[in-house]
């Protein structure tokens, strides 16, 4: 057989092109679905930033603020032009808080906490976290969360042939850690693992174009993970930026695909670090929470310490009543915490402060909500949507079921959610109508490991409920 050298060579080249092209290209990061306008991002972010500035100890030192802005501007300049909306208002603000954390609000305002500087070994690590945050802004993940929160039933519902699947939180879901001290926080700042990975990849690409080695981002995440083990808890960063897993591997892989621009001048990093020494001591989130103590004072009703184990429910029961609306029988050793529209009844260590956040990890909550429909299924769905506050990992844990509350038709919705204690928590939501057409609900919560042990207790409480409203 005669081999035509020229054509063999051409074929080889063609193969080489085909097989290497997908390998050398950087990962394409796409904008998620979003029903808001960039202008609305800016508006939301502006409002939330004003609250942050009021409640957080902002560092006014001009050297530190100027340094942060210089790094931030460099990253913005390196960001993909097609993602940079002209309406965005970027700002980079240092905060005198101990925790290793940084966050960015929709439309551009970014806050970097002192703890992050303390933990960073090089400028590239600060720049990495900032590039990650900037990516959340450019990909509009806050309002994409909100978009998801308002349509949580569509995707899963269509698949399962029923309504289902949700993300929620808010007043009903005070079992879910308040992601931050300000109202918009949980909605705008708790990202899904998928969004985290997208922000990591785009962040790595922005870093490379700004002259920072993206591998510094992977290193910073390792430090954060290390520190969070040390503090024995679930620090702020981890609760709003859940680890998608394999972070170091995929960031380094992406880094290998990127061309590094000429290195950024990082000579200011060490002098800036020492400038922090001249500031007042950093506060902790717990200091802030203590200073705050909301007038409604829910946190002041803490029942023990959520980090401590919870005892099995007592076999002794006693009756409680929720105004003229209901009565129920609950374990005698549980504590009742009334608030405006709901009553929680919790075992010792089932509700309180954890890492500066108020968490509800065990117990039951009874409440009343406005119903938006006369159809129970629809009203339940709308209500779950309305209280949605961006806990994107909350999931339907099984089929919804027709049940009874005080002999009335009711719906039971089983859910699971990542717990502020680590692992999963099991949540049961039960809804029925009151005579005036409003929605009565109760909600049970226990950590996965204890879900079995609390099951009978929750059933017994549920069966004891008597709706006593005067018709
Ligand atoms: Zn993130």
List the helices and strands and how they pair.
Elements: H1 5-24, H2 38-55, H3 62-78, E1 91-95, E2 102-104, E3 109-113, H4 114-119, H5 123-138, H6 141-150, H7 152-160, H8 185-189, H9 193-210, H10 215-230, H11 236-240, H12 247-257, H13 269-275, H14 285-292, E4 317-322, E5 326-331, E6 335-338, E7 342-346, E8 351-354, E9 357-360, E10 363-369, H15 376-386, E11 395-396, E12 401-405, E13 408-418, E14 424-433, E15 439-447, H16 451-464, E16 466-467
Parallel strand pairs: 1-3
Antiparallel strand pairs: 2-3, 4-5, 5-16, 6-7, 7-10, 8-9, 10-15, 11-13, 12-13, 13-14, 14-15
Zinc ion binds at residues 132, 136, 191, 196, 199, 241.
Uncertain spans: 1-22, 151-185, 294-299
**Gross geometry:** elongated
Distance between the termini: 97 Å
User: Which cofactor or ligand species appear?
Assistant: zinc ion
SS summary, helix count: 16
Q: How much strand?
A: 15-25%
- Please give the share of residues in helix: 40-55%
Number of strands: 16
What is the average of the pLDDT values? 80
* Radius of gyration using CA atoms only: 25 Å
Largest sheet: 8 strands, antiparallel
Class derived from helix and strand content: alpha+beta
């Amino acid at each position: 057989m005669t081999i035509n050298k020229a054509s063999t060579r051409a074929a080889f080249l063609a193969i080489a092109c085909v097989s290497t092209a997908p390998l050398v290209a950087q990962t394409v990061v796409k904008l998620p679905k979003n029903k808001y306008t960039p202008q609305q991002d800016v508006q939301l972010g502006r409002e939330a930033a004003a609250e942050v500035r009021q409640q957080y100890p902002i560092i006014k030192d001009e050297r530190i603020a100027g340094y942060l802005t210089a790094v931030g501007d460099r990253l913005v300049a390196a960001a993909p032009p097609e993602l940079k909306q002209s309406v965005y208002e970027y700002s980079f603000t240092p905060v005198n808080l101990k925790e290793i954390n940084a966050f960015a609000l929709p439309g551009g305002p970014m806050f970097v906490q002192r703890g992050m500087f303390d933990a960073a070994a090089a400028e590239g690590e600060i720049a990495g976290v900032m590039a990650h945050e900037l990516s959340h802004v450019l990909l509009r993940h806050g309002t994409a969360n909100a978009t998801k929160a308002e349509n949580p039933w569509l995707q899963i519902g269509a698949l399962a042939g029923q309504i289902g699947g949700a993300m929620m939180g808010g007043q009903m879901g005070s079992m879910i850690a308040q992601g931050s001290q300000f109202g918009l926080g949980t909605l705008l700042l708790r990202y899904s693992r998928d969004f985290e990975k997208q922000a990591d990849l785009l962040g790595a690409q922005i870093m490379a174009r700004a002259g920072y080695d993206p591998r510094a981002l992977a290193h910073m995440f390792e430090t954060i993970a290390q520190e969070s083990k040390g503090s024995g808890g679930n620090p702020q960063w981890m609760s709003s930026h859940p680890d998608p897993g394999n972070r170091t591997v995929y960031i380094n892989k992406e880094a290998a695909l990127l061309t590094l621009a000429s290195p950024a001048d990082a000579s200011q990093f060490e002098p800036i670090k020492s400038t922090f020494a001249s500031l007042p001591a950093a506060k902790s989130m717990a200091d802030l929470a203590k200073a705050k103590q909301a007038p409604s004072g829910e946190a002041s009703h803490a029942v023990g310490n959520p980090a401590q184990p919870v005892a099995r429910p007592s076999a002794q029961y006693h009756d409680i009543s929720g105004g003229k609306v209901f009565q129920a029988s609950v374990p005698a050793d549980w504590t009742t915490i009334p608030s405006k529209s709901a009553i929680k009844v919790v075992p010792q260590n089932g509700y309180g402060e954890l890492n500066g956040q108020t968490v509800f990890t065990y117990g039951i909550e009874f409440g009343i909500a406005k119903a938006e429909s006369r159809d129970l299924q629809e009203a339940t769905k709308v209500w779950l949507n309305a209280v949605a506050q961006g806990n994107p990992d909350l999931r339907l844990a099984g089929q919804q079921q027709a049940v009874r509350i005080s002999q009335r038709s009711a719906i039971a919705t089983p859910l699971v959610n990542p717990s502020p204690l680590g692992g999963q928590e099991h949540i049961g939501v039960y809804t029925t109508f009151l005579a005036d057409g409003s929605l009565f609900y109760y909600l049970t919560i226990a950590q996965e490991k204890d879900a079995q042990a609390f099951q009978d207790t929750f059933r017994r409480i549920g069966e004891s409920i008597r709706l006593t409203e005067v018709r």
